[in-house]
Amino acid sequence: MSKFVGTGVALVTPFDINGNVDYVAFSRLLANVVDGGVDYVLVMGTTGETPCLSAEERCRVIDFAKKEIAGRVPIMVGMSGNNTADLLESIRNFDFSGIDGLLTASPFYNKPVQNGLYAHFAHVADVSPVPVILYNIPGRTGVNISPETICRLARDCENVIAVKEASGSVDQIMRVVENKPERFTVISGDDGLTLPLMAAGVKGVISVVANAFPRELSQMVNFALNGDFEQARKLHYKLLPTVRLMFAEGNPAGVKAYLAQMGVIQNVLRLPLVNVSDDLYAKIADDIERLKKVSGF
Fold first, then answer.
1. Domains of the chain
2. Residue 292 a catalytic site member
3. pTM of the entire predicted model
4. Which residue positions in the chain have pLDDT lower than 70?
5. Fewer CB within 10 Å, N or C, the chain?
């Protein structure tokens, strides 16, 4: 079975008030999510503000996560690019020791056609020493990986084991589930859609919300994996107002506002990202109080 079934968390990168990576806060965050029961972590995803980190910082953050986690849960690392040759070279030169999977998004900006996407990902799968997870997020990349292309890659490339689907189209995601090979895993990339997608055959989520509420999110996913949708639904609707607030002014600004008010990290982002508005920050404070009063939180 794939290591990437259940609840994964797309980790934020904490910064101190001077804008440097805050490794003390990062240690707290890692302890919070691992002790909270997540099944695996994603380092250097979109939520980690990866485009705003230098190559040296990215390597240091990954190495720190490996040492802190110490094999307790699998680690997925994000590496993407719109220059295939450069991305392949980066993969060849990267130290994958202690890394269990590679998440790679579709090339952005230059908008390849489906055959171009297929060739790009097939080359990545060929050079990657660890299993490859496709990442379909057309809202950020500007290009959608079609269900046909995803399933073609799943059939043709043994090293392509899963897709993180954040297209927002339930119909598209169901078409992937319907036509994929048995060995291939479909993972939700949207916290708010995770439960309905799991009812359709998706096997978990790579979550933003789990940075702040790992135990509750993991419980919901585990209930769904075990077929107890009544209990999963209760947690889904308790978390849904939080999901809406967390993404109201973009990611990771929302989740960092939650984590800051919970005392895990400081509320610092790197430009071009900025903090949530004062109005939303106050609503988040109210939501944290609401969750404290909810049974089971």
1. 6-225 (3.20.20.70)
2. no
3. 0.96
4. 1, 295-297
5. N
